[in-house]
């Protein structure tokens, strides 16, 4: 990826403290020319600029969690709140800025568990299927405004993942 593609771009990357998000922040930071921090707010119109929204923040349960009989409702609710509802709201608020601009890119981190059964707990898989469905449904809705919507679905990533239930 050339530096020109990210020059003057404004990105929000959720979950950037560790794992895939930290890597995305690092790559974006390395690709953007160094300059003094500046506000991207245009004071005379009170509008914001946003080019890329990467909804990456998420949690998962321990991989050793058993079948559906071992699942806890409270863990499921927390996982849906962070993984799916967080992504939904991130996309919603990004769209508010991107639609008037008539351009932008909204990304989500889904998972290979949406293509390969048995890779994750049922709760985690359900949230990632939800993200995949959300991305597919947003594509025609936001595409009419020039906004691209995509999912990144990694298999296994070795990381110090602090978001374990």
TrEMBL record:
The keyword Glycosyltransferase is assigned to this record: no
Top-rank taxon, per record: Eukaryota
Keywords of the record: Oxidoreductase
GO MF terms, alphabetically ordered: oxidoreductase activity
Gene3D superfamilies the UniProt entry points to: NAD(P)-binding Rossmann-like Domain (3.40.50.720)
InterPro entries, alphabetized: NAD(P)-bd_dom_sf (IPR036291), SDR_fam (IPR002347)
Family: Belongs to the short-chain dehydrogenases/reductases (SDR) family.
Protein name per UniProt: Tropinone reductase-like 1
Lineage: Eukaryota, Viridiplantae, Streptophyta, Embryophyta, Tracheophyta
């Amino acid at each position: 990826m050339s530096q020109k593609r990210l020059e003057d771009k404004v990105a929000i990357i959720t979950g950037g403290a560790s794992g895939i998000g930290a890597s995305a922040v690092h790559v974006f930071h390395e690709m953007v020319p160094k300059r003094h921090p500046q506000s991207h707010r245009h004071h005379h119109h009170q509008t914001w600029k946003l080019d890329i929204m990467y909804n990456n923040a998420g949690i998962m349960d321990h991989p050793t969690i058993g079948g559906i009989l071992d699942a806890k409702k409270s863990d499921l609710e927390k996982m849906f709140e962070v993984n799916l509802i967080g992504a939904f709201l991130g996309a919603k608020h990004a769209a508010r800025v991107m639609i008037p601009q008539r351009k932008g890119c909204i990304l989500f981190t889904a998972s290979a568990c949406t293509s390969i059964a048995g890779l994750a707990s049922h709760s985690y898989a359900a949230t990632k299927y939800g993200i995949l469905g959300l991305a597919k449904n947003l594509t025609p809705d936001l595409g009419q405004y020039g906004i691209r919507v995509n999912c990144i679905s990694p298999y296994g990533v070795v990381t110090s993942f602090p978001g374990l239930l």
